Amino acid sequence: MRELELYFGPQHLGMVGNFSITLKVEGDRIREATANPGYLHRGFEKLMEYRTWIQNFPLVCRINVVEPDHMELMYAMAVEKLANLEVPERAQYIRSIFLELSRVASHLFGLWAYANMLGFDTVAQWAMYHRDLVLDLFEELTGGRVYHIYIWPGGVRRDFPEGFQEKIVNTLHSIGGCVPDYDDIFFNNRLFSERAKGIGKVTREEAMALGATGQVLRATGMKYDIRKVEPYAAYHQVPWEVPIREEGDAYSRIWVIRDEMIESVHMIFKLLDKMPEGKVFNRTPNPFKWKIPAGEAYVRCESSRGELGLYLVSDGGDKPYRVHFRTPSYPHGLTVLEKVLKGESIADVGNIMISLYVVAPEIDR
Amino acid sequence: MSNSIKENLISSFPDIQVEVPEKDRLKINAEKEEVISILSYLKNKRYGHLALISCVDWMEEKEFELIYILSAYLARDDEYTDRERLNIIIKTRIPRDNPEFLSVIPVYENAEPYEREIHELFGIIFSGHPRLIPLFLEREYEIPPFRKDFDNRQYVKDVFDKIPSVL
Amino acid sequence: MDRNQLIKWFKEPGRMAHKYSLHVIYFCTGCGIIEIPPSITARWDAERFGIIPVATPRQANLFLITGYVSLKTLKPIIRTYEQMPEPKFTVGFGSCPINGGMYWDSYNTIKHLDKYIPIDGWIAGCMPRPEAIFVAVTHLWTLIDKEMADGYKRYRKNYRYYRANQEQLYGKLDWPPLFPIEDEK
């Protein structure tokens, strides 16, 4: 049979985000796949060198559109490390609760994308509706639905308003009460397991050699989670477990996402019980004349897609000298995707790409 | 934990400088010829996760600085030891006028897109790389865009503002 | 429906049916894709305004350019726009297509999008709320009624200048001109 070259290009119903894959197919089977990133490249790291330390905060949360809060946390932690700032304890608890709410919202968005692509429209509508309830909480706390700019070097920007804790509890109860319905319609559905079992299989040695972290690695049976390996914020104060699966295919990855969402909801309840009183930020020096001593810092955390890291270099001035983000979608979308797509059929490309949980703006920055 | 790694490294590679700048971080300054042997040595000691390859442009000192950051995966499925908390940062300097380096793909397979990105944004040539073609950029620039002598705002004035609007 | 609407339906049924069923093409061009799924799902329901997403440009007549446009993305945008059948409308979503937005000094983003394709309306914000999309759609209906939403007619009339701007940015283009360009006398 003759070999054809097809573009699974940016304008496609199975593609969430602006990303393109070039496929060499023979019949229905893929012989070779090449990823073409670069449609969303803005030169972030160069733009950040022209703005002062405080002016970079509205810029840094726009790197990952679906989940902007972990980027703010990374930049704040790196600046605190270089400038020797302390964070009060109540702020650490608030940061953890905020990040876990963001993780729940991001997983619901991923569930919308995956269910929509497979054809389960009902579950897609439910997931988007529940995500909107969480975004209402964000809007009351920070003023914006999508971009928050809430985590600040030295703490968080403001404290919880009156009655906010009850609102969090009520929203999470109403989402958690629908989990049996989700299970009936989607997760235990025979159609989902027929379409996702055995597709896009990644073994543990392949995942370790290609630099994969996050759900891709946890679906092969290793409990690698930066919140347990190198704890930050308030994650070591409450008991919780890392969910894993064994097989390594698309089915296990979606089940790991579901288990993580439920674990996040339980973790928020435990953190709310244990939260102490106190102030929520330590004052930073005058932000217009803030010079940070020379040095470098590498910090890392666990975003909803995997290991996120930031390498920051300062030369003693009022602007950063070099900023480099290590984003989790970079190995997933470029090396793991090209390896996993060999031998699959064309109908499964969208399935595999969304189950690998790739977000295109994170690759290009 | 980092002290035992430090002693092992100093005994195997006598010319490098190893320091512990803070908790859970180990910094190694090496010459450019020794980097590949240090990376293979550390990979055999189970530091098999290459997290990042980065590059800093020190224009006044006329050097590029390449940075490799390594860490370890879990040995047993649910045991978190000090070995996984450690991040090893390896730094080396190459001259700015003739920048070229050896590719580390034979040791770490996932270094391929990092080296392509550094090649197109800084202009460093990695010998032994199977496909050193552009990754993000759509066109060629005279000075690679992330170097310190490329001025963003002047480029925007020269290229984008000169195009006339239609009515 | 009141008397004005009934009169309009009798006089111009084609235009009324056209404006109450705008089909959006599904193309996630940038940041703004994060507020499109909430608009088209159950909570902020866009289908009561007649808007549903479709798969190919041949079936669409509304193009929402959500967010910033990079150099690599502008080529598929122009090709998609030229494949849509007339009459077609474009709306720029977010602050970035207006004048560069937050990335005004980036070497890889387009600063003014209406130098390359014609735009009928803008929605400001970063990100705009889903209600802003619905307000923009009702404004677009008013413009269609008054025959002021004529981006596609401007493209046909001034194609020479649009094509010259595109070629000044990219050099030689891969696709032939959409309308024949006469040489200036």
Order of helices and strands of chain B: HEEHEEHEEHEH
Largest sheet of chain B: 5 strands, mixed
Helix content of chain A: 40-55%
Beta-strand residue percentage of chain A: 5-15%
> In angstroms, what separates the terminal alpha carbons of chain B?
69 Å
- Number-wise, the strands of chain B total 7
General form of chain B: elongated
Net shape of chain A: globular
| Proper CATH architecture of chain B | 2-Layer Sandwich
CATH superfamily of chain A: Cytochrome-c3 Hydrogenase, chain B
Low-pLDDT runs of 5+ residues of chain A are none
Oligomerization: heterotrimer
Span of the ends, CA to CA of chain A: 40 Å
State the strand order across the main sheet of chain A.
1-2-3
Largest sheet of chain A: 3 strands, antiparallel
Total domains of chain B: 1
The CATH homologous superfamily of chain B is called NADH:ubiquinone oxidoreductase Nqo5 subunit
CATH class of chain B: Alpha Beta
Broad CATH class of chain A:
Mainly Alpha
Topology:
The complex is a heterotrimer of chains A (about 375), B (about 170) and C (about 180).
Chain A: E1 3-8, E2 20-26, E3 29-36, H1 44-47, H2 57-60, H3 69-83, H4 89-118, H5 121-142, E4 151-152, E5 155-156, H6 164-176, H7 179-187, H8 190-196, H9 204-209, H10 215-218, H11 226-229, H12 250-274, E6 295-303, E7 306-314, E8 322-326, H13 329-340, H14 349-355, H15 360-364
Antiparallel strand pairs in A: 1-2, 2-3, 4-5, 6-7, 7-8
Helix pairs in contact in A: 4-5, 4-12, 4-14, 5-6, 6-12
Chain B: H1 2-12, E1 17-22, E2 25-29, H2 35-44, E3 49-58, E4 63-71, H3 82-85, E5 87-95, E6 100-102, H4 112-122, E7 125-127, H5 152-159
Chain C: H1 3-11, H2 13-19, E1 23-25, H3 36-40, E2 52-54, E3 62-66, H4 71-83, E4 89-93, H5 96-99, E5 121-123, H6 130-145, H7 151-157, H8 159-170
Parallel strand pairs in C: 1-2, 3-4, 4-5
